[in-house]
Amino acid sequence: MTIRVLLADDQALLRSAFRVLVDSEPDMEVVGEASDGAEAVRRAKEERADVVLMDIRMPGTDGLAATRMISADPELAHVRVVILTTFEVDDYVVQSLRAGASGFLGKGAEPDELLNAIRVAADGDALLSPSATKGLIARFLAQSDDPDGDDDTDTARSERLGTLTGREREVLVHVAAGLSNDEIAERLEVSPLTVKTHVNRAMAKLGARDRAQLVVFAYESGLVRPRVE
Fold this sequence. Notes:
About 50% of the residues lie in helices and about 10% in strands. By secondary structure, it is of the alpha/beta class. A 5-stranded parallel beta sheet has the order 2-1-3-4-5, sandwiched between helices.
């Protein structure tokens, strides 16, 4: 299957460079470009994109707002967003994950890292930049103020967490730690297919789009606590 990629960046030169790189791969193609967030949302729908490489800072509708719009649109439920940012670990990244992004990557990443990011996102996996530790992301998720946070939200999270089986909660903890299905399977002494089944069931019960959203939920619900260095 060919991965359909949309490039959203206000710098034409960067879009051209990304296009050449992506189109050179046999399993992916660039199906469109956008110079701002509003255009990215529209083109994602028109071109039936699978993955959007989204610059977080753009004039008009920025990448963060566009990611929220994509995540909230049922017609774009299959679209995965990878945030491209110059500053790899900041509050924008946390907001992006909360908004529904599958992960983020620094603009200084190597070509192979960018291509791998597209494939990882298309497969529904969580993506964290190799130069940013999961522990640091966890601390931001745990410490950042949630503008929508209140008692009702906490209660709703607790109720959703209560729908998980003991094994699903155990798998969720390992997902939040950044482990792959194979790594989780080895630790729990089960097959990778069994782990995948538990992950999919947890996603369905928690209303998560992908593994990145499972990570966010695990920390915001208090199931997993960030380690203090």
